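ok trying again, last paste got cut off:
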Amino acid sequence: MGELLGILFCVICILCAVLGFCINKFMSGRNGDLEYEMQEEEPEEIPQVDFPPLHAVNLSELRKKEPEFSSGRFIKWSRELFWQLATASEEQEIESIRPCLTEEFYRSCQNGCRDLQKRGVKIVYEQRIEQGVAITGYRVQNQQEYLATAFQVYVTFATVDVKTGKRIGGNYSMSRRAKYELEFVRQAVRDTKDMVCEGCCPHCGAPIEEVGQERCSYCNSKLVFKPWVENCNWLLCKCTEKWYE
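nice, full thing came through this time. structure:
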């Protein structure tokens, strides 16, 4: 009887060992799967790329006429306008920034949006990281002033079918390093008294009657930014793009 119990005990020990080994292998495999899944979900690293330096222009001539001009505020405003312009095809709407564009440049942007609409596609920005920004140009020509702002950005974008919401060409995305230069124009002013008043429509100059007013009561243009003094009479007239290798 004692010998039989000993054999039974040995069998039970062997079964426990085999069961423990199987459980350990199973859990190791699961941990490996989970680790692999987590690695797949890690965001793609942005390559460390050296951009050419941007050289800020001397604005002393502009500040003689406009002592209150702020490079920081102008860059902030032009950045907001630039990204609204860049994502116009995604939103399928450009009218909201029309008061900030010259008529010629507005028509050009409108034609670009219409072309994408005819093709049934839109550009979706998945990642956008600014690498540098500066005011790079100022000149007076033919009774007009021109001011240029340059942005160096790393962008990842995809072309998407509007109807299906799927990317063109599967899961393909494109990453680029680029420099965008925005050029603004306004009638040359002698001093700040010649500028459009604070709280005025940037499109026609009529007073804005209420805080948060969405459209001008006089010309019915959409008011997209808060009223400002130093930027309201600058209109975006050109946007050039340069891709870095």
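cool. Helices lie at 2-41, 60-65, 71-86, 88-91, 103-119. Residues 2-41 form the longest helix (40 residues).
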